[in-house]
Design brief:
Oligomer: single chain
Order of helices and strands: HHHHEEEEHH
Number of domains: 2
Helix content: 40-55%
Number of strands: 4
Strand order of the largest sheet: 1-2-3-4
Shape: elongated
Largest sheet: 4 strands, antiparallel
Length: about 170
């Protein structure tokens, strides 16, 4: 025969399990949601540079120049097509089609700084403006106004972005 106090505390144990599962679920979603957001933060800018690289690989330097943000009709000031061809056209310092590709991506205020391995000897830092999606050479060697925490996160968790850069 069941006693009067046999079921005492059974509801509290169930409630504690529900609370623990809820807390763990919210924590799991917060951690992996934040990680996903961080890894895909510069996805659009990376796609712009990947299309630039694809145009270079295809040998279409006019399309690459347009992706850069310039055109034959309206060349960029200080970066005419002849200068662009010196930097990105075929030649000794030009891109090696077997090597060229993104190696790093970093958030910098209103832009993204992307590292592009052009050939075995040449690495370029590219600055992609988020609003206009234009490519330019980076004006700084590292992102300005970064706090040490951001640098630490980029050097640790940022290495996971390399999976998405390929």
């Amino acid at each position: 025969m069941a006693g009067y106090l046999d079921q005492y505390g059974a509801g509290e144990e169930r409630r504690n399990r529900i609370i623990l599962r809820s807390i763990l679920t919210v924590l799991f979603l917060a951690i992996f949601g934040t990680l996903g957001w961080y890894l895909l933060l510069n996805h659009h800018e990376e796609a712009v540079v990947k299309s630039f690289v694809a145009a270079l690989k295809a040998g279409d330097t006019h399309a690459a120049y347009r992706i850069w943000g310039c055109s034959d009709a309206k060349p960029c000031s200080g970066y005419e097509y002849t200068r662009f061809m010196k930097d990105w056209g075929p030649g000794a310092n030009g891109p090696d089609l077997a090597v060229i590709g993104l190696t790093d991506s970093e958030e910098c205020n209103s832009a993204a700084m992307l590292t592009l391995q052009v050939n075995p000897q040449r690495v370029e830092q590219l600055w992609v403006d988020k609003g206009a999606s234009t490519i330019n050479f980076a004006p700084f060697p590292i992102c300005p106004q970064q706090i040490p925490y951001e640098i630490m996160v980029h050097r640790t968790v940022g290495k996971l972005r390399k999976i998405f850069l390929k």
